Amino acid sequence: MLKNFFVILLFVCFISESERDYTLDQLIGKGTPEFYGDGYQLQKDAYDAFLLMKAEALKSGIDIEIVSSYRSFERQKKIWTRKYKKFTSEGLSPLESINKIIEYSTIPGTSRHHWGTDIDIIDGSKKAPKSVLNPNNFIDNNVYSELRVWLEANANAFGFYIVYTNEISREGFNYEPWHYSYKPVSKPMLKQYLKIDIQQLLKSDKLIGSEYFTDEFIYRYIFQNICAINPILK
Question: Does 87 or 198 have the greater pLDDT score?
Fold first, then answer.
C-alpha cells in the first residue's frame, strides 16, 4: 500500500500543465489531433494517466470504463439536433427546448469533450442499468456509488477532476458525477478557448435553433455553463 502511494505521488509530481498551443479547429472539435485509446479517444497525456488510474481502481475491484471521451463537432451537432427535434415535437417551445438540452448537453463547438481530455465513466464490473449516466446511479448505495466514492478519494492523484460538481451555488449544467477532466491539459485548453469569439462562433455555425441564441442567452451560457465548473479546472 505504501509503495503504491509513493508511485502515485511520484506521478503527480511530474504532472505539469500543457504549454502547447491549440488551433481553433482543435478547440471546437473540428481538428484531427492524434488520439489514443481502445474504444475511446484521449490525448496521449490523458490516456497515460487514465491507464494508471484504471489499474489502481482495479485493485479495489472497480473497473473504470469510459462510455464517452472525444466527441467531434459533427457528433455533438447530431446530439443537439436530435434533442432539439425531440423536445420541440413534444410541445416545448424553441427556447424551452434549448434550455432543456443544456441541462446536460452542450452546444456544438463548446463541449469539453472536443478536447480529448474529458471522460464520462462508469464501473464496468457492475451490471449496467438502462440509463447509465444518471446521477441517481452514483448515490445512496446504488450501482455506481462505490465508483463515485473511489473517484472522490483518488482521481485527483492522477490529474483527473470532476467538472460539474454538486455545489448548491454552482449554476449551469446539472451535477455529473461521471464526468472527469484531465486538468494538466484541459485547464490550459480552456484558457485558450475563452480567447475565442464564442458569440460569433455560435452564430456562424447556423445550428438548428440558433436563431434563438440572443446576445443575452450567449452571455449567460458562457458564464453559467462553460465557466461554471469545478474552480480548480479554471
Answer: 87
DSSP string over 58-124: HTTT--EEEEE----HHHHHHHHHHHHHHHHHTT--HHHHHHHHTTT-PPTT--GGGGT-EEEEEET
How many other C-beta atoms are found inside a 10 Å radius of the C-beta of residue 49? 25
Q: Please give the mean pLDDT across all residues of the chain.
A: 91
Q: What are phi and psi of 62, to 5 degrees?
A: -110, 125
- Provide the 3-class DSSP secondary structure of residue 8: helix
Q: What band does 7 get if pLDDT is binned at 50, 70 and 90?
A: very low
232/187 Cα distance (integer angstroms): 9
What b/e readout covers 158-196, taking b as 16+ CB neighbours within 10 angstroms? Answer: bbbbbbbbeeeebebbebbbbbbbbbbbbbbbbebbeee
pLDDT tens per residue across span 172-221: 999 999 999 999 999 999 999 999 988 888 888 889 999 999 889 999 99
Cα–Cα dist 111/121, whole Å: 17
Instruction: Kindly list the distances between the CA atom of residue 107 and the CA atoms of 23, 47, 77, in Å, as whole numbers in the listed order.
Output: 19, 25, 8
- Please name each of the domains of the chain with its CATH number: 23-233 (3.30.1380.10)
Q: Specify the residue for cell string 427556447.
A: 95
Neighbouring C-alpha atoms within 13 Å toward the C-beta of 163: 25
